[in-house]
Amino acid sequence: MKNGLQRFGKALSGMVMPNIGAFIAWGFITALFIEKGWIPNADLASIHPFMLYYLLPILIAAQGGYMFGGDRGRVMGAIAVIGCIAGVGGTEGPSMLMGAMAMGPLAGWLIKKFDKAMDGNMPAGFEMLINNFSVGIFGMILSIIGYYAIGPIMQVILDVLSAGVAFLINHSLLPLVSVFLEPAKVLFLNNAINHGVFTPIGAEQVQEMGRSIMYMLETNPGPGLGVLLAYWFFSKDRATRDSAPGAVIIHLFGGIHEIYFPYILMNPVVIIAPIVGNAVAILFFSIMGAGLNGPAAPGSIIAFMMMTPRDTMLVSLLGIAIATAISFLIASPIIKATGVKSLDEAQSKMKDMKAQAKGTAVAENVTLGDGEIKKIIFACDAGMGSSAMGATKFRNRIKPLNLGIVVTNTSVDNVPGDADIVVCQVILKDRAAKSAPQARLVTIGNFLQDPNLDSLYNQLANRGAGAASAPSAPQAEAPKSDKPQVLFREGIKTGLPSTDKESAIRAAGELLHQLGCVDAGYIDAMVERERLTTTYMGMGVAIPHGTSEAKGTVKKSGIVVMQYPDGVDFDGEKAYLIFGIAGVGDEHLDMLAKVAESLEDEELLEDLKKNADVEKIMRTFG
Question: Left if phi > 0, otherwise alpha if psi is -120 to 50, otherwise beta: which for 443?
Answer without folding.
Answer: beta
